[in-house]
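During the reporting period the student researcher (J.K.) took over the structure-prediction task from the postdoctoral fellow and processed the backlog of single-chain submissions. One of the processed entries is reproduced below for the supervisory committee.
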Amino acid sequence: MNSTQKRVGLVVGGLAIVGVAATLVLSAFEENLVFFFSPSQVAANEAPEGRAFRIGGFVEEGSVKRQSDGVTVQFVVTDTVASVPVTYRGSLPDLFKEGKGVVAQGKLKKGVFHADQVLAKHDENYMPPEAEKAVQDAHKKVRSASNSR
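J.K. obtained the following structure tokens:
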């Protein structure tokens, strides 16, 4: 092998290594990428079935039901336009209450959101920015639909 062939071999080998590294980084990034959807978007089938995402809104009044096993909780998340049933197995945050803001992360299966993480708001004035925007967007859709009638 002459020196030109060695250089070409090194460049090709280096590019192959960079390509493999980039592929690994991008696949890890895609696996950890979690999108946010409102209950209205979930009801409109815009959320992916069986893939992890976050849903946020308010815990619907009277919807919290604790199972006899003491660990499983069912509740409904709403953006005041649409509602999505949620099942969670684990201990809920101390600030989790009906009528208050919540963000849950998990997967949608057959119309029920199976959460593996539940986050509650931290004070009276806070709502996660994604949840606040989702509620505002849902209200805008309702207003524009009623105005067009």
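The committee noted the following: The chain has two domains: 1-33, 34-147.
J.K. will present the remaining backlog at the next meeting.
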